[in-house]
What we know:
By secondary structure, the chain is of the alpha/beta class. The protein contains 15 helices and 13 strands. A hairpin with a 2-residue loop joins strand 7 and strand 8. Helix 12 packs across helix 14 (about 295-315).
Amino acid sequence: MQTLxxxxxxxxxxxxGPCLGGMAICALLADFVFLVRKTSYMHVAPPxxxxxxKEVGEAWVHAKKTGCYxxxxxxxxxxxxxxxxxxxxxxxxxxxxxxxxxxxxxPNRREEELLELVPVDESKTFNMHRLISLVVDEGEFFxxxxxxxxxxxxxxxxxxGYAVGLLANNPRDKGGCMTLDAADKMASFxxxxxxxxxxxxxxxxxxxxxxxxDEEVRGLIRHGCRVIYANAQATVPQITISIRKLYGGxxxxxxxxxxxxxxxxxxxxxxQGVMGPEGAVAILYKGELDAIKDERKREEHKKKRIAxxxxxxxxxxxxxxxxxxxxxxxxxxxIKILKLLNSKTLEIxxxxxxxxxx
Length: 358
């Protein structure tokens, strides 16, 4: 019954104590799993000899390592309160739209702080959570899986009273790179929002997928397929705003119009391409740089090559944004576009189901 109801009604499980064996599997069949610090623990097999169930399946293990949760609550009361808060963003079933919530936040509000929040230097970080709070209604953002794959931020907010799903790269964690865990996190969130008529907004500042051996051997390609499937199949309104940079595979994860999105806009300082100039120089001129033994001269030569290749990368034809916007106008711009896309409909080819790579 849980799987038959999936995508028809939102399903929420509150695990507020032990959840063992087959019941742990049932818990994860829901769309949202709530855990409580210190009292919740969840595992399938008996714990290894010498270890307790709490050690292998305590709430923090799932929050930080496994991703088998959506919300980590401080106590039972906090768990119930957070569940009530989540329900305010969700429709009762897939045949209706999410509930509208009127508020006093001006839809035309401009934020001067956004001009100074994001450094033009793409190597410097900034507070993406702060950016989100300045754009959404009354600064309220209900974040999902905040401790797991925190290089990607996902959650619910309101724009002009209407519920939206927000996805944003977090430059303070792994520079905002995508990872296989972040790909899974995005795919599951996108598919939920699409099933329940919640528009999607991507705030992109992504230097591509993380170039790491551990990521590749764990199946980065397979997990990357999942996020491409999810983004390409979504039929709800989809808007991508490039905050600063968007390189390589990041253009698939933060999809723009390439995977069926409705609008790709950008702030004025846009860096995009197959990869960043530093990465390109490291690959193309590795032998040349390694041959320079003097560290100071090597750095000077590296900077020279980066400057040269930056001009070349910027001259390459890329999928340009359909519109450039003043950062201060991000909120009124998004609300205006969401209203225009409110009646969006798409026809899907008849089939039994898709065959997403799992």
